[in-house]
Amino acid sequence: AQSVAQPEDQVNVAEGNPLTVKCTYSVSGNPYLFWYVQYPNRGLQFLLKYITGDNLVKGSYGFEAEFNKSQTSFHLKKPSALVSDSALYFCAVRDANSGGGADGLTFGKGTHLIIQP
Amino acid sequence: NAGVMQNPRHLVRRRGQEARLRCSPMKGHSHVYWYRQLPEEGLKFMVYLQKENIIDESGMPKERFSAEFPKEGPSILRIQQVVRGDSAAYFCASSSGRGIYEQYFGPGTRLTVT
After folding, report:
1. Do A102 and B40 touch (CB under 8 A)?
2. CA-based angle A100:A106:A110, to the nearest 5?
3. pLDDT tens column, B54-101
4. Does A99 lie at the interface with B, CB-CB under 8 angstroms?
5. Cα–Cα distance for residue pair A67/A49, rounded to 1 Å
6. pLDDT tens for residues A22-49?
7. d(CA A82, CA A105)
């Protein structure tokens, strides 16, 4: 079975400072990894994904994430936080080797990111 | 290009009634997924469909829940004889392919069972 852990319920960062939202995963095969952001009463918006290749992937709104296979992590980062980045962030995983039609994503519980002016 | 559309956005049902949630995927997408989000929880996968076929329903409760994606029209998630525990936000997502393709989510339907 696959799983995702987001160890922090909430992350507080001052505007202009770098931010990191942590994610670790567990799959039996190779992972496909995704980050999504959710604003209040809205659906999830896709930020970025790791499929293969370069461990550092860049996404929307200046976000990036680093895939670390040895640590089974996929932390979300941004060099300089904006107040508008305040939202709920979800990490998700799918096992690349699952086959058999198992295409549903497994999500973490989410991390509230609060950027303070 | 319109995104994933879901309706209604809010649905209130009394215990024992039926709830029908609709999802129109993004243009050009033939893969649809349904997820449920309980308060303070992440999204839980329910079912994955392609046109006229259920591919993976491993996350669907065994009773009262069903889904379809007909050749014409939106995908439907149907909940019969709703109970209070069904109260949640139900999200639909679509993609242009399987596996490596990201899923795009609709705004969700918030179901409240009274």
Report:
1. no
2. 170
3. 999 999 999 999 999 999 999 999 999 999 999 999 999 999 988 788
4. no
5. 10
6. 999 999 888 999 999 999 878 899 999 9
7. 28
